[in-house]
Amino acid sequence: MSAVMTEPTASQFELLNPQSHGKLRFSPRVVHQAHFVQIVASEFAAAAVRCPILITKDSGTGSFYIGAMLGFKPGQCLLPTVADRAGFHPLNFRRDGFFISGEQIAIDANSPRFSQTEGEPLFTDGDQPSAEMRQIQRILGQLQDSLKTTEAFIATLVRLKLIEPIEVSLSFDDGERLNLQGLYTVSMDSLKALSDTDVLELFRSGDLQRIHLMHASLNQIGSLADKRNRQIVASS
User: pTM (2 decimals)?
Assistant: First the structure.
């Protein structure tokens, strides 16, 4: 698993402007088959209703990031629609193809989300951002603001030595067995061992609530496994 909040390669990266992209359109709805999507702290409450929230490492940098599990292996998304996710629509899905570059917005020129003929316009005839584009701007702003909070949260977990590996072993009705590697969660035993001062700090920062949301979300691993088994029965 690798982080998804990374910039595209230089050959794909284009700073968005009405002169170059005045006629460009984009699809407001994108179907995703990702089995794991990076999320930020402001999304924890919505994600925890349907998705296990877990920690993993960026394969390129080795740094921790937090994501919502939507399936158990690449190419297998068990919660493909917003309805399946009880209304949770990851910001990373919603901003797909758009990035922040300094003070500007950039796009992945090779993303299938963009077209010259179909979808919503990025700009009006007066070279102003369209209503749909302004929504993308708001989404990028939410991501940028909450990413700072999320990074601070992870840094606190590391500092207090609260991150521990989690073993996820699954057996399905068709005989398939999976042993998921490279996943981490918050150690509740280590949390209980913290000093009152550290716990008070976690409470006042909002991090304690985030920890409990992550812990509660682990119950969704079993729900996802049940959904996979129902798919197996339906297809047999």
Answer: 0.89
